[in-house]
Design a protein that fits this description.
67 residues; alpha/beta; 3-stranded parallel sheet; 3 strands
C-alpha cells in the first residue's frame, strides 16, 4: 500500500501500539492527525516523528467524554 502523502487519523497516538504505529506510518510518508487526551504529550510526541511530506497535526480529544 502506498502511504506517501496520504492523510491518516490516528487515535490513541501517544499510547503503546499507537505510538509504534505512528512512527511506522510517518516513515512511510503518511501525514498524520494524532489524537490524544493530553496536549503536552501530543506536542512532544509529534516532534519525535519523521516528516516526509507536509506536517503532522494534533487533535486533543477524549472520546470517553460526551461533551
Amino acid at each position: 500500500m502506498q502511504l506517501n502523502g496520504k492523510r491518516i487519523l490516528l487515535t490513541g497516538a501517544t499510547g503503546g501500539v499507537g505510538s509504534i504505529l505512528a512512527h511506522q506510518l510517518a516513515r512511510k510518508g503518511a501525514r498524520l492527525a494524532l489524537v490524544g487526551r493530553d496536549a503536552t504529550k501530543l506536542s512532544s510526541f509529534k516532534q519525535t516523528l519523521p516528516i516526509m511530506v507536509g506536517e503532522h497535526a494534533t487533535v486533543v480529544a477524549d472520546f470517553t467524554q460526551a461533551n
